[in-house]
Amino acid sequence: MGVRTWIDSWPVYRQLKGTDPLGRGAAAKSARSARLTPRTASADRVVKSVCPYCAVGCGQNVYVEGGRVTQIEGDPDSPVSRGRLCPKGSASLQLTTGDAREHYVLHRRPYGTEWQRLDLDRAMDMIADRVIEARRAGWQWEVDRARTRRTLGFASLGGATLDNEENYLIKKLFTALGAIQIENQARI
């Protein structure tokens, strides 16, 4: 590499002599960074979503390639976040593809001291059985001779990341099951 070639490749020289005097574009690029392509360039489609971490509801663009999530970024069209994400939202790709993601449920039996792994289907069956039993054991047809048709055997406490549609469905489900203690953490 000659001296002239070396000087021409020097970012400060390119910044002063080129069309990028503030050093925000071409002057700041190295040859290697000029060859790089964005992680989102190979995506088949972009799916609009909402960040799952808090009640703010920042918009996200989820980039999907071959049926697999490859990148998650802030949605510039979102009136809430205008394309910005906090550190938690920026790391939400790990929810779908991270090595630490669990694909099973940990369960500790009553009075047990050890956790055991259960597959999701088994865990869902256990939850359904317990809801049915709690409903059966705590069902009240009437209270003080007033018809109630309810149960105090279980309750629902929703999280702050649930959107309106999810809250609506949860309210409908628990009301149909006879529960009257239905609340959302976002209002507490």
From TrEMBL:
Cited InterPro entries: Mopterin_OxRdtase_4Fe-4S_dom
Domain 4Fe-4S Mo/W bis-MGD-type: 44-100
Organism name: Streptomyces shenzhenensis
Family: Belongs to the prokaryotic molybdopterin-containing oxidoreductase family.
SMART domains assigned to the protein according to its UniProt record, in alphabetical order: Molybdop_Fe4S4
Primary subcellular site in the record, as a coarse category: other
Identification of the protein by name: Dehydrogenase
GO cellular component, one term: cell envelope
Residues making up the signal peptide according to the UniProt record: none
A Pfam family of this chain: Molybdop_Fe4S4
GO molecular function list: 4 iron, 4 sulfur cluster binding; electron transfer activity; molybdenum ion binding; oxidoreductase activity
Named cofactor requirement(s): [4Fe-4S] cluster
Database matches in Gene3D superfamilies: 3.40.50.740, ADC-like domains (2.20.25.90)
Domain of life: Bacteria
Keyword line: 4Fe-4S, Iron, Iron-sulfur, Metal-binding, Oxidoreductase
PROSITE patterns named in the record: 4FE4S_MOW_BIS_MGD
A GO biological process held by the record: anaerobic respiration
Location within or outside the cell: Cell envelope
